[in-house]
Write a structure and sequence with these properties.
The chain contains five helices and five strands, in the order ααβββαββαα. It has helices at 3-7, 13-19, 64-85, 120-124, 132-145; strands at 27-30, 34-37, 47-52, 89-92, 103-109. α3 (64-85) crosses α5 (132-145). Bound molecules: zinc ion (ZN).
Length: 147
């Protein structure tokens, strides 16, 4: 999905998935407070989009229980990606510019990415790295690892 198309969506994709049955490929993990999955338009191998189940505008809105569980969730999910893919880095990024909602990716940045393509440049390259079958294959392995 290109940026223009995404900006024309009538509502936040992640919020609509949380309120319905989740992504077509299913959630990769469903915890008491957290959900993560491969979202349409972001099917890059090793990319999961994560959200707290309760709608919040930013981490400043987490309640005490959600805040205490955040670190463990990030450790589990980033650890599973790291163990499975052995990437150079596992990124966690949240900017919330499209909607004032707090959803964020936890994603593998492979070793082959050249220095100029790392960091925020890697996020911008998402649309060029979409590989639906491989993203869903990795998601299945992560789903098993996170059970
Ligand atoms: Zn949202």
């Amino acid at each position: 999905m290109d940026e223009k198309a995404a900006n024309e969506l009538p509502e936040c994709l992640m919020c609509s998935l949380v309120e319905s049955n989740g992504p077509e490929s299913g959630w990769v993990f469903e915890e008491e407070h957290w959900l993560g999955g491969v979202l349409p338009g972001f099917e890059v191998p090793g990319w999961l989009i994560v959200t707290v189940r309760r709608h919040v505008e930013g981490p400043f809105n987490l309640n005490d229980v959600e805040a205490k569980s955040l670190g463990g969730m990030i450790r589990r999910v980033s650890g599973a990606i790291n163990d499975l893919m052995a990437p150079d880095r596992v990124y966690q990024v949240a900017m919330s510019e499209r909607w004032p909602h707090w959803h964020f990716p936890i994603l593998a940045r492979p070793k082959w990415v050249p220095p100029e393509g790392r960091g925020l440049a890697y996020m911008d390259a998402c649309k060029d790295m979409i590989d639906v079958p491989e993203a869903l294959r990795i998601a299945d392995e992560l789903r098993t690892a996170l059970r």
